[in-house]
């Protein structure tokens, strides 16, 4: 195996795997997550040309994102900070621990120091992000600028690292303007959920989403405008300002992915499209076709599929079924549906005009459940 710079985050690599013996060697290149290129803190992705098979990510395979430079990106962030400060409450930023947290901290400090955003205390409430920051302080070298831009994080007096849970708990007492960065980036785990539970219902609070949100995650539901969400078994009305800033994604967009794949030619075998929702997979496949790649060589593998690879061909292994029905890979599952129904039922009961109305609603739900159970029993085949 040989590792190549992927440019997605510090240390990210594409992996070139050479399998075989003597002259009978098959070369497979796994892109991993690819960087957008032209970023301040990361080198551009690179990899070899002339391979047998390619497995490439497709996160943004169906869309192109507006390219912004450092000045414009920080101007957009500063505006979000000003609006959050104007709303009168704290700013919560769910963040990915490696890369995104450190870049956001640098930009927040920069716009505050320049006077473009109100100054305030900044709390990094993620043990993993704090440990990753130590790595960035040691290894975050930018070969273009010949310096480590992350060293300024070491000297910021208004930046606080919260390692212990009790340190995180103390943030509940703060009422003045402040910023919290907490994991996870999609709001599905970590300390950010605790902060969401205490801030989502507050109109003066702001939640700023700065990364990709997968289908079914709490972050995706918030971005889509859900007014009622369920967190760890509790229902919460969303009254806080939910904002999204899509200029920090470290993924290459559709144009970048196509250009990267083209630079890997000649590709003697097949191109496997992975790591994307159905629309992204289809979008990237269409763009690669327009770029001259034969559609028969573009493979969108399903879960559990297996392939025998030779130097010039990928043969699907017959037999065996997928654990997911076709088209179900990127849709809400029954867990999400249950949480949504329970949340909406709770809200409807709460909003009912009287106790009698609430009782009638519950009785109606009970009747519907009995009818559904009876219908399910009669639909089952007899032995």
Describe the structure.
This protein is 34% helix and 18% strand. The chain is built from 10 helices and 16 strands. The strands form 4 sheets. Strands 1-2-3-4-13-14 form a 6-stranded mixed sheet, with helices on one face. Strands 7-6-8-5-9-12 form a 6-stranded parallel sheet. The protein starts with a strand and ends with a helix.
List the helices and strands and how they pair.
Layout: E1 2-5, E2 13-21, E3 24-30, E4 53-57, H1 70-87, E5 91-94, H2 100-113, E6 121-125, H3 127-139, E7 159-161, H4 165-169, E8 178-182, H5 192-199, E9 206-209, H6 218-223, E10 228-231, E11 234-237, E12 241-244, H7 254-262, E13 271-274, H8 278-290, E14 298-299, E15 307-309, E16 314-316, H9 334-351, H10 355-379
Parallel strand pairs: 3-4, 4-13, 5-8, 5-9, 6-7, 6-8, 9-12, 13-14
Antiparallel strand pairs: 1-2, 2-3, 10-11, 15-16
Helix pairs in contact: 1-2, 7-8
């Amino acid at each position: 195996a040989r590792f190549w710079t992927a440019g997605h985050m510090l240390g990210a690599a594409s992996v070139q795997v050479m399998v075989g013996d003597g002259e009978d060697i098959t070369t497979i290149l796994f892109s991993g997550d690819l960087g957008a290129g032209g970023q301040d803190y990361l080198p551009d992705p690179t990899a070899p040309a002339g391979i047998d098979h390619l497995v490439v990510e497709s996160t943004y395979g169906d869309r192109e994102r507006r390219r912004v430079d450092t000045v414009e990106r920080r101007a957009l962030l500063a505006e979000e900070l000003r609006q959050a400060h104007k709303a009168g409450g704290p700013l919560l930023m769910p963040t990915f621990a490696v890369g995104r947290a450190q870049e956001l901290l640098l930009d927040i400090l920069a716009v505050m120091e320049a006077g473009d955003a109100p100054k305030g205390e900044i709390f990094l409430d993620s043990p993993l992000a704090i440990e990753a920051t130590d790595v960035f302080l040691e290894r975050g070298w930018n070969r273009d600028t010949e310096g480590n831009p992350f060293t300024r994080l070491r000297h910021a007096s208004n930046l606080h690292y919260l390692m212990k849970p009790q340190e995180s708990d103390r943030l509940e007492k703060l009422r003045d303007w402040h910023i919290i960065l907490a994991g996870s980036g999609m709001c599905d785990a970590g300390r950010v959920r605790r902060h969401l539970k205490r801030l989502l219902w507050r109109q003066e609070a702001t939640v700023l989403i700065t990364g990709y949100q997968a289908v079914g995650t709490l972050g995706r539901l918030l971005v889509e405008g859900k007014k009622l969400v369920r967190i760890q078994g509790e229902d919460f009305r969303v009254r806080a300002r939910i904002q999204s800033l899509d200029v920090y994604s470290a993924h290459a967009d559709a144009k970048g992915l196509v250009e990267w794949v083209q630079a890997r030619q000649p590709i003697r075998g097949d191109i496997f499209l992975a790591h994307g929702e159905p629309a992204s997979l289809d979008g990237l496949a269409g763009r690669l076709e327009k770029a001259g790649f034969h559609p028969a060589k573009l493979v969108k593998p399903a879960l559990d599929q297996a392939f025998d690879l030779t130097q010039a061909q990928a043969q699907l292994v017959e037999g065996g079924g997928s654990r997911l029905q076709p088209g179900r890979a990127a849709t809400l599952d029954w867990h999400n549906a249950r949480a949504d129904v329970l949340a909406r039922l709770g809200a409807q009961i709460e909003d009912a005009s009287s106790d009698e109305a609430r009782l009638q609603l519950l009785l109606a739900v009970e009747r519907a459940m009995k009818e559904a159970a009876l219908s399910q029993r009669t639909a089952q085949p007899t032995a």
